[in-house]
Amino acid sequence: MRLSKILVAIMLVVFCCISISISRELSVQSPDGTLTATFLLNNGIPYYIITRETDVIIKPSRMGFDLKDNKALRDNFSLESSTRSSFDRTWTQPWGETKTIRNHYNELTVQLRQQDAQQRSLDIIFRVFDDGIGFRYHFPEQAALDSFAIMDELTEFKFMNNHSLWWIPAYRDNRYEYLFSKSLLNEIDTVHTPLTMKTGKGLYICLHEANLTDYAGMTLFDNGKNSLGCDLVPWSDGVKVRASAPFDTPWRTIQIADSPAGLITSQLILNLNEPCKIEDISWIKPGKYVGIWWGMHLGKYTWAYGSRHGATTKNVKRYVDFAARHGFSGVLVEGWNLGWDGNWFEHGERFNFTTPYPDFHMEELSRYAQDKNVELIGHHETGAAIDNYERQMEDAFAFYQQHGINIVKTGYVSTRANKTEWHHGQFMVQHYRNVVETAAKYHIMLDVHEPIKDTGIRRTYPNMMTREGARGQEYNAWSQDGGNPPDHLTILPFTRMLAGPFDYTPGIFDLYFDEYKPDNRVNHTLAKELAIYVVIYSPLQMAADLPENYENQPAFKFIADVPVDWEETHVIHARIGDYVTIARKDRHSADWYIGSVSDENPRLLKTRLDFLEPKQTYVAEIYADAVDADWKDNPLAIEIKKKLVDHKTDIMLKLAPGGGQAIRIRPASADDIRIYQPY
Ligand code: NOJ
């Protein structure tokens, strides 16, 4: 008997003796044999257990549901049958952090039936991968369960110890836009996922969900005794989920790695989503953009009509010219349509998505942009007035399609949708999905701000490009708490980014912007601002600053060069909240890029470039913090140099306090080899 089996057996004996009962148990292992999910029916109550080799990761934890006006699906079950299967296939991402992904798992489905007159049935499906576990509930079609309302999902995650967690709070007015805190499990209240934790034995675990389609978002709360409970974000009437059988819940995901890097490279969430449902994806293309955006956050321009209106025909042309000159494919235009005057975030119902302000000429601008091989990026700020938006949505996307626009940024600024619903309950999950599907009909890609968290649906709908769902750059422009602190970007890759792409909107060069906002600033160095393009993945990546701030800036070349679609991703250094270094290979050339960011401390990080092709000499174009750079007093000091490197070169990343480094590595020409010195 393997040790893990002995362990589960001992645990079961202890567990079952306590509750003196009849129990049934079934296990399924990961393809490499390290992870085991065990389903246990004890006294009619369903539980699951997760072990990793000899470690118990999750102790017997309850499963099931409380229903409205209906008996609970929490106990009195018998195990009717079970099925097993295995799957191993490699698929190609249309765009992403890596080109190919292996989807390799063993599956166990248990069919349960309640032992009463109604005989209701419930299935639980476990998929065990080498990098973690997913499980979901399936409500089969059945006479005794037609339409139903879930009042509680009883899923628990009972850990062995009081682990350290990185978390943001749930049920707050600013949705997911909070700084991460680190604390022990028993110190949290209710938090969002992805929820990343470190065990006393140095394992890293992330709890999240995959394929959130028609359900409430899951938050987690301290359930006592090192246990987290599942708390579904309710509708305004208290119901958690309205459903009718047959019905599938999202997958509950548990990613497990022995290093923080292993969480970043895990593909579990995407693998638990369904394959692409859009037949022709030739219109879906990642890209880089500039836009009429930062100027509004700084107060230079307004969204509203008036003397400082940003989205004027003249100003948009200036941005289009800039984009064309520097090779950007898109120009985002916010504030072009009626509805921004006055207190727009309280009056989303005033937005009109097909009527421009008088000083914005859509026909002229779309022609102008097309002539320059640039596309305008549309914007639908809804103020979370969902009824108003849904009434106009088809027309709004058709309007953009007619004008050759195939990327739209959406926004839901407000504390409640339709002034009543949380952004993360089933009502909004349905809405966000409706938007993705409608946009696809009009061949439109999406960048969603104030979104539902990412649960990997980009696999099924690859027009769902990127989203916000965290504190991004804009907080540096106006947040009263002083903006994002230097460690923010050293936590995001291990937390928010495990869900999927983030439209952080990097690229601010004027880090102080005193002319507009003397009390705010960006709290890190210029080199770190460049490194974000590699560290924080987004298939639509913005150069967010005012175009005038890029004039005569040699460092701007990095932003012009850096791709947004990658063949491979390697995590080189990873310590949550301290530093992270990521290397990625361009999908369309032989170039590699490295981004490294530190918190408020300086770092000296050694990196062997052993991922490069042997026998090839490369030029490393290095954008490093200058020796005297420091995020507080000298953030703009950057040193740009070129050195010859190959796969045996060890490079030293010297990061200033609050600093970073960005490197492009490209094959060297004969001239390069003559001109540049070895590293
Ligand atoms: C908040 C978004 O995050 C930001 O990017 C946008 O400019 C404003 N809302 C206005 O829609």
Write up this protein.
With 679 residues, the protein is α+β, with helices and mostly antiparallel strands. It folds into three domains: 261 residues, Beta-galactosidase, Chain A, domain 5 (Distorted Sandwich), CATH 2.70.98.10; 183 residues, TIM Barrel (Alpha-Beta Barrel); 164 residues, Alpha-Beta Barrel (TIM Barrel). It has 13 helices and 36 strands. The strands form six sheets. Strands 6, 7, 8, 9, 12, 13, 15, 16, 20 and 21 form a ten-stranded antiparallel sheet that branches. Strands 1-2-3-4-11-18-17-14 form an eight-stranded antiparallel sheet. The structure holds 1-deoxynojirimycin. The site of 1-deoxynojirimycin has 8 residues, from loops.
Summarize the structure.
With 679 residues, this protein is of the alpha+beta class.
